[in-house]
Specification:
alpha+beta, Immunoglobulin-like
């Protein structure tokens, strides 16, 4: 029987009721299960608060809200059912949505800040009297800083580091909590511990503090509805008070210091401080919270006599440590690091970040766990706890609570480990925004990193909501002339850091385009198009009439393996060629986006610009024989994959030259951030699949698998972040958890396993696995907007078995290896058993 699932709202993915939605007319999406062969949706009905709306349409992803827009705080139950002709399915289960506070006038609260904050993290306290049983209660909250809320001594939920990091000057996110079960008749106490977070803490490598302001402040509104229908509101105002907490110091880079001994301090008042409520926005994506716990794998004593702990996995979070029978005043210190060096904690990659948590104990048995900091680490050094046992310490993994949507496996264990490393680097660097690394004095939203990693990220996790929010910050911080900051949110406004740079600024065009390709969300392009166009217009102004982007500051092919440790931007690829190639790519994206949105004049404008830039690229940088200036792997990959070579002979020659460079380099990778996502695709599309596989499966440095042979559990920032002798690369840019070079995983999904979108949003799948003698099988699964799609292939005993699952609402173009023509199939399970073309070719 056909059965639709409960609808989703916009790009929110949390289970259960969706609270605090900032869109009064949310688009709906649903999947359909158990449909018989040949079934297809021809109509749907949406039931909103008991009223039914019928629509004749085959659409089931991001369909328009059919009812009147929701008002602030309004709650609605929504069901869907679908039809094929005159046959209707049962109704889905209900999904519940509740609007947030949609207008600044909905807030009676005001920002408050402790009058005398002192040295400790403050606790801000309010009281409310409730006369009877509670029907519902909602807490709306945000802060200048980060906050930990509790009611009557109980944590509100497991959300951490709220409200996260946005471009605070333009957009400040608030969260909504259902606190009905925490409110009781009589007096209720609402408390918030305030921490520095991104607002007032240290940010970046220049030791800047309090970039956004020097006072922590809270905005909170608790609305309680009793069964008699009365609503009582506790809103932050001048009647609240503050007191010092146990936290002596807190910083995202340096750690948290906590004194658990009882302390007496008088309560102080609060000031009402400035805070523009029109900045407030509801979340687009999931909150930050603990997502798993890793037990200790090993506890031992180092040569220097230090107690070290290995958790077996480089991750992001903090330590949970149980202590017993230690006297009051005992100091426990935990230091963190990603790697060991000389059998001790390898802290050089932390740069100035202390990454140290300290507790002064109360004398009771207790569990030590911070809440106002975050670390990237695999190893910990613990002092102050004699005879530490493995069962008493664990790593709490923390990050944005993204829904996992993509998986890959193969017959090659090292390749599987590489993919697992990519997954863990994604988990560790999606903490409210896409960051570069989690361990040192940086952890910033570098535009270049997510621009190249976006396709991989969107396959592995549902990042649409998080990236939608980040793109809003990018547009907000884009300068009037169209320039894009190198990091978003921006932290360094020095002139040299405000110079437009190719690949980094191109995040303004590429990331929205990637999201559209993976979700089919045209609204994403429509919202971002002014930002996208402004970036291309800025580059056009820089390039001038000859359409070549030359000179000025460029990151270039960042961290090319030939770049010296002290100068990671000194790549083989000429930066002018890299920049002009990106100019052409972004112009093409804007032209296509405008065409899709029906803006014919803009489409024509940017299509003409694209043609001019491509022609200039060839005139300036490409020989008639297809050689590209500076003769680097990256440049051939860009030219091939971005259609910069108009003559077929040049494209063929460029493919041959790229393959020759890879062979001459001993099948070692020779690309930095810019070329790495494209080099295997370029080899594949020009007929050099065998070279792409040899490049992929190389294990000597530099290569993707070299870190695997060195025991890596995440992707490294440099190809040689750790040298073969176990020493750490001396360069400043030496993280061991940095997803950029893991962008090859997108090729694993699309080409090795063979699962890709043939049209935006996966309504039509492209199944095209490319086989190699080195692998006997591979598989990929992705939760598309229409449901689960999967591909697996297995070579055995001269045969190839190909299994494909297509979700209801989608179809697939399947290229069965060895067959001359692809076949098109509808939803359901499909299997082919054919002669193994690899075995046949080997036999010949």
């Amino acid at each position: 029987m056909v059965q639709p699932c409960a609808p989703r709202f916009e790009h929110r993915t949390e289970p259960g009721p969706v609270l605090g939605l900032g869109t009064p007319a949310p688009r709906l999406s649903w999947t359909v299960t158990r449909a018989e062969e040949g079934w297809r949706q021809t109509a749907y009905e949406v039931q909103v608060a008991g009223k039914v709306f019928t629509v004749r349409s085959a659409e089931q992803v991001l369909v328009p809200w059919p009812a009147r827009p929701l008002r602030s705080r309004e709650r609605a139950e929504v069901k869907v059912r679908v039809a094929y002709g005159d046959h209707w399915s049962p109704w889905s289960e209900a999904a519940t949505v509740e609007a947030g506070l949609l207008d600044a006038a909905d807030w009676t609260a005001r920002f408050i800040s402790p009058v005398d904050p002192g040295e400790r993290a403050p606790v801000v306290v309010g009281h409310v009297e409730v006369p009877g049983p509670v029907r519902s209660a909602r807490l709306y909250a945000t802060a200048h800083g980060i906050y930990v809320p509790s009611i009557n001594g109980r944590r509100v939920d497991d959300t951490v580091l709220a409200p996260g990091w946005t471009s605070y000057e333009h957009r400040l996110r608030y969260h909504v909590y259902d606190v009905t079960t925490l409110i009781r008749p009589g007096e209720n106490v609402l408390e918030f511990v305030l921490g520095n977070g991104w607002y007032r803490g240290r940010l970046g490598w220049t030791n800047q503090r309090a970039i956004y302001g020097d006072r922590l402040a809270l905005l909170a509104q608790l609305e309680i509805t009793t069964f008699d229908g009365a609503v009582r509101v506790l809103a932050t105002d001048g009647t609240w008070h503050a007191r010092p907490s146990e936290v002596l110091a807190d910083d995202l880079y340096d750690g948290q210091t906590t004194d658990l001994r009882p302390h007496d301090a008088p309560a102080t008042g609060v000031d009402i401080v400035e805070g523009d409520l029109t900045r407030l926005v509801a979340p687009d994506g999931p909150p930050i919270r603990p997502t798993s716990v890793l037990p200790a794998r090993k506890v031992w004593t180092s040569p220097a006599g230090k107690t070290l702990v290995d958790f077996g996995q480089n991750a992001v979070g903090w330590i949970r440590l149980r202590v017993r029978d230690l006297p009051a005043g005992t100091t426990v210190v935990v230091r963190h690091a990603e790697v060991l060096e000389d059998k001790e904690l390898g802290t050089r990659p932390l740069r100035s970040a202390r990454a140290t948590d300290t507790w002064v104990l109360s004398g009771h048995d207790e569990v030590l766990e911070p809440s106002l900091t975050l670390h990237g680490f695999r190893y910990a050094e613990v002092t102050g706890v004699p005879d530490l046992r493995e069962q008493d310490i664990a790593l709490v993994v923390v990050g944005s609570d993204l829904r996992r949507t993509g998986w890959f496996s193969s017959s090659h264990e090292q390749l599987n480990q590489l993919h697992e490393n990519v997954v863990w680097s994604t988990r560790g660097n999606f903490v409210d925004l896409p960051t570069d690394c989690p361990q040192r004095d940086e952890r910033l939203g570098w535009t270049g990193d997510i621009q190249i990693f976006g396709p991989t990220a969107t396959f592995l996790y549902d990042t649409a909501g998080l990236l939608r929010s980040w793109l809003a910050d990018l547009a907000a911080e884009q300068r009037p002339d169209g320039s894009v900051p190198h990091v978003v949110p921006e932290i360094d406004r020095a002139p040299e850091f405000r110079t437009p740079a190719a690949a980094w600024g191109d995040a303004a065009t590429v990331v929205p385009w990637t999201l559209y390709q993976r979700t089919g969300d045209l609204q994403m392009l429509e919202r971002q198009l002014p930002s996208m166009s402004a970036w291309v217009d800025k580059v056009a102004a820089l390039a001038g009439p000859d359409r070549l982007w030359r000179g000025g500051f460029q990151f270039g092919d960042w961290l090319d393996p030939t770049a010296p440790p002290e100068n990671p931007g000194r790549a083989k690829a000429d930066p002018d060629v890299v920049a002009t190639a990106h100019f052409a790519r972004s112009s093409w994206i804007v032209a296509e986006s405008a065409r899709l949105l029906g803006r014919a004049a803009d489409a024509e404008k940017y299509r003409t610009l694209t043609d001019e830039v491509r022609a200039a690229f060839v005139r300036a940088f490409v020989t008639p024989q297809g050689r590209i200036h500076s003769d680097a792997q990256t440049l051939y990959a860009l030219a091939i994959e971005w259609d910069l070579l108009p003559e077929a002979e040049q494209r063929v020659a460029a493919g041959h030259r790229l393959a020759e460079l890879v062979r001459d380099g001993g099948f070692h990778i020779a690309t930095g951030f810019v070329g790495t996502p494209l080099v295997c695709d370029a080899l594949t599309s020009t007929g050099h699949l065998d070279v792409a596989y040899r490049l992929l499966l190389q294990t000597q440095c530099p290569s993707w698998l070299y870190p695997v042979t060195m025991g890596a559990t995440t992707v490294w920032e440099r190809w040689d972040s750790m040298r073969p002798d176990g020493t750490i690369n001396p360069g400043e840019m030496t993280s061991f958890n940095h997803y950029a070079l893991g962008a090859v995983a997108d090729w694993l999904h699309r080409t090795v396993a063979g699962l890709a979108p043939a049209v935006p949003g996966y309504r039509r799948l492209l199944v095209h696995p490319r086989l190699t003698p080195e692998l006997t099988g591979a598989a990929a699964t992705h939760l598309t907007p229409y449901g689960k799609a999967s591909v697996s292939w297995l070579r055995s005993a001269g045969h190839l078995r190909l299994d494909v699952h297509v979700p209801v609402g989608a179809s697939a173009e399947v290229h069965v290896p060895g067959a001359e023509q692809p076949v098109t199939v509808g939803h359901g399970d499909h299997r082919w058993l054919v002669a193994d073309p690899v075995s046949c070719s080997e036999g010949r």
